[in-house]
């Protein structure tokens, strides 16, 4: 009898891999920040950069950011008032300090709500987690900016930020 | 079998009719709007030019931001290939032949003209420039 070992092995490998990924997802995942699931927010905040998870900044930060889209880190990202209201509501409702978000609580450690930071990449926890990334990697042509999460975190768009 | 292929042919020709005959879709409507505005701004205006649109797309301007001197800085030189934003996000090809869903939402088109003309040229684009550019991309 001719047993197709290769396809069998491949199939098993795929199965094993899926089980691994699925198991991790079921366990609540590691470093999970729920991705944006509002179509307006996804479109408006996700055309230039990854639509960052609202759970990565406190509500005060989102309000501060949305109040000044004209100068959005040097770019004019202004939207009409109606769209802005939809986006702000969504970001605030799902902000990092709404409570009960394990990874958000961790990310906000050492951040005072009063100073409403605008850059996720300047949060103390973020800096600590990325301290081992060498300079040349940030400058790599496929990375170029710290805002480019998906360059290294392949599943960032799905909410997973493991190494 | 015969019937099936006839049906397929019929469907294909129907699709071609709708795609090619210039039955006014949102893209054509918007171009017509731009043409009206261009004529109002300049009575000598006599239609859009894909050639001028191409120049607009590829030319280096000094008026905008240093890291985006031309449209091609982010969109790439090949209109049928994708580009990349400064923040690392992929941009679908601008050519209509490569991304057929392009320029079918007038508000979206206006939004990006406004943003990107400011970034690259340091000013808003005129109706004629927008029409030229859109004509160029529609034929790409």
**What count of domains describes the coordinates of chain A?**
1
Kindly report the CATH topology of chain B: Cytochrome Bc1 Complex, Chain D, domain 2
Please give the share of residues in helix of chain A. Answer: 40-55%
Order of helices and strands of chain A: HHHHHHH
Strand content of chain A: under 5%
Low-confidence stretches of chain B at least 5 residues in length (pLDDT < 50)?
17-22
Number of helices, counting only DSSP H or I runs of 4 residues or more of chain A: 7
> What is the name of the CATH superfamily of chain B?
Cytochrome c-like domain
> Major β-sheet of chain B, in short?
2 strands, antiparallel
Task: Describe the sheet with the most strands of chain A.
Answer: none
**CATH architecture field of chain B:** Orthogonal Bundle
Judged by helices, strands and strand pairing, the structural class of chain A is mainly alpha
Gyration radius over CA of chain B: 17 Å
Mean of pLDDT of chain B: 88
Computed CA radius of gyration of chain A, to the nearest angstrom? 19 Å
Assign the structural class of chain B, choosing from mainly alpha, mainly beta, alpha/beta, alpha+beta, or little secondary structure. mainly alpha
Describe the strand arrangement of the main beta sheet of chain B, using strand numbers: 1-2
H/E series of chain B, N to C?
A: HHHHEEHH
Which overall shape of chain A is indicated by the principal axes computed on the Cα atoms?
Answer: elongated
Number of domains of chain B: 1
Description:
The complex is a heterodimer of chains A (about 160) and B (about 140). Helices cover about 40% and strands about 0% of the residues of chain A. With about 160 residues, chain A is an all-alpha fold. In chain A, helix 3 packs antiparallel against helix 4. Mean pLDDT of chain A is about 90; it is low at about 25-30. Chain B has helices spanning about 1-20, 25-40, 50-60, 70-75, 105-120, 125-140, and strands at about 85, 90. Chain B has a two-stranded antiparallel ribbon. In chain B, strand 1 (about 85) and strand 2 (about 90) form a beta hairpin. The model of chain B is unreliable at about 15-20 (pLDDT under 50). By secondary structure, chain B is an all-alpha fold. The interface of A and B includes residues 48, 74, 76 and 148 of A.
